[in-house]
């Protein structure tokens, strides 16, 4: 197992999934959010997740999803975790974990230190915190925008759960991000794309190489 886990998010084709697996990703992410250029329908998500080798975790990414959608996504057992990327409360996150029996990740939208402190409310309710850049009010998406936050906000902190770093990462800056935060898991989407929603095999390979050289 590499020292730093890597999640390649927003995969929507078998080719992109294959590239992420070959490059050494420990996690792949599939987005269910119709406004996203990376959105996949439940059938497509389950089909993509089903062909991922067992050693790679399959994360379904949702935004304030209701139980009906979550039931559809988790129906075949192909996902191994759910990532909540909306305004889900700690109570809602814990209820999702109980009802669907999967580890739950909570994305924390970060601009200031207060945003990171707010993550403490999720202690015990979720299995991983994913610190991502806060997108501007009125933005089309709550993630996948290529925005970064001030990584020094995470330096030396004792966090209340396993965690990961996300937002605006690329092969060029991920070394600095890891040096500052010592993140145990790194998540990326638009930084390994050639256009919104179109994953680049070369960028996926370069990114994973950059992380594993840290
Ligand atoms: O990627 C999306 O389109 C998306 C849409 C709605 C909710 C979450 C979304 N992505 C979640 C992720 O985990 C992304 O990898 C994360 O936000 C980082 O994105 P990026 O800055 O583009 O690397």
TrEMBL record:
CDD domains: PRAI (cd00405). Belongs to the TrpF family. This is N-(5'-phosphoribosyl)anthranilate isomerase. The gene is trpF. It comes from Sphingobium fontiphilum. Its EC number is 5.3.1.24. The keyword Isomerase applies. It catalyses: N-(5-phospho-beta-D-ribosyl)anthranilate = 1-(2-carboxyphenylamino)-1-deoxy-D-ribulose 5-phosphate. GO terms for molecular function: phosphoribosylanthranilate isomerase activity. The lineage of its organism: Bacteria, Pseudomonadati, Pseudomonadota, Alphaproteobacteria, Sphingomonadales.
